[in-house]
Design a protein that fits this description.
This protein is α+β, with helices and mostly antiparallel strands and 364 residues long. Helix content is 43%, strand content 12%. The chain contains twelve helices and twelve strands.
Length: 364
């Protein structure tokens, strides 16, 4: 950070305690007295603050979490830890008491969050209609319009563009692959939401898939050169189209950096899914959209390595679309074919886009 201003600390404490506060000392200050700005302060460096309020002297510690590995890579990770600490410290007997939880603003101002109960985000309103409505029309009519092909290419081009921004922090790639399996929104979290016994999959079957995904983690976690800017939840319900190919994306998820196959598989599997629901296999017009999207992306990125890492991402997305929580009315045969797709894809070293129906176990 740019430096912790003593005046900012004074104003923050005065606002917190609703009384005037005088700062006596902060941390290991230079021998010549109190500095106006603690230039050596950085995130992860605790500071001892001595101050006077209402004629009484008090001491407190202000502490942050240093950015780094072990689940502290993202700003949101560190915020989560601070918020949890403030909530939990005071519930345990003999634990040091948390006075407040706050945040540093870019201006140097300190903001209190201690009374927060829930957080929210306020965003702009975006005009447009969800891309899923285009796909519903395609399924109902069984035909494609010229604009349908233009839009699916535009979506591929968008991913080509955002994936150009790379990041050399290989540990973030390891984190992303680890979260793919172990996060509550990832593979294991989804598996835990399934009923223990179902006609399409039981606990033993889920366990076998999980084991295969762990093997895949060790196959791909060290290809950190692939780390790039991602959306993280790039599916038809998170895309609003207006006129022509003009669109806005919604609800970016799970971090700024990741594996490009995450975004590609999130969109591609929906063409498979919608076709499965209507035809029981990947057929035109959805097969045409699937191929246009995938081939356009590969043609412009030359990223054939993706075909060697996309497998667990397809498994993850397959667990989403087969899940009874979101799709309670799916036909049994559709769910079974999705799980067949998951198993078969996890067994192949190189994903072949023209063999989707073979992975599904369907004949066309």
């Amino acid at each position: 950070m740019r430096g912790l201003k003593v005046e900012a600390v004074r104003r923050y404490l005065s606002s917190l305690f609703k009384k005037p506060v005088e700062i006596i000392s902060i941390g290991n200050l230079a021998k010549d007295g109190l500095e106006d700005e603690l230039k050596g302060y950085g995130y992860g460096s605790p500071l001892l603050i001595e101050f006077e309020i209402g004629g009484n002297r008090r001491r407190a510690v202000i502490e942050t979490v240093r950015p780094g590995a072990f689940g502290h890579e993202h700003f949101s990770d560190r915020a989560q830890l601070m918020l949890w600490s403030h909530s939990a410290f005071n519930k345990l007997p003999r634990h040091v008491r948390s006075i407040d939880v706050g945040a540093f603003a870019e201006s140097g101002r300190i903001i209190t969050l201690g009374d927060a109960e829930e957080f929210f985000i306020l965003s702009d309103f975006a005009d447009g209609e969800g891309y899923y409505k285009d796909l519903e029309r395609v399924g109902a009519e069984g035909t494609l319009e010229r604009l349908d092909l233009q839009r699916v290419r535009a979506l591929a081009d968008y991913l080509v563009d955002i994936h150009k921004l790379k990041n050399s922090a290989a540990e973030l790639y390891v984190r992303r692959i680890r979260d793919l399996l172990g996060h509550g929104e990832g593979i294991m979290g989804l598996m835990d939401s399934y009923p223990p016994k179902a006609a399409y999959i039981d606990s033993k079957g889920l366990e076998e898939i999980e084991h295969k995904c762990i093997v895949w983690r060790w196959k791909i976690k060290d290809v950190g050169h692939r780390l790039c800017q991602v959306h993280g939840d790039f599916h038809p319900w998170n895309i609003l189209f207006r006129k022509g190919t003009d669109f806005t994306v919604l609800d970016r998820s799970r971090g700024e950096w990741g594996e490009p196959a995450d975004d590609v598989s999130a969109m591609a599997i929906n063409f498979i899914f919608l076709s499965l629901r209507r035809y029981g296999a990947l057929r035109d017009p959805f097969e045409r959209l699937f191929l246009e999207f995938f081939e356009s992306y590969l043609r412009k990125t030359h990223d054939l390595e993706m075909l060697r890492v996309i497998q667990p991402f397809f498994a993850w997305r397959g667990l989403v679309i087969a899940n009874p929580t979101w799709y309670p009315d799916l036909k049994l045969q559709v769910r079974r074919r999705i799980f067949r797709f998951i198993r078969n894809v996890l067994e192949t070293d190189v994903f072949e886009i023209e063999k989707v129906n073979a992975y599904l176990g369907t004949k066309v």
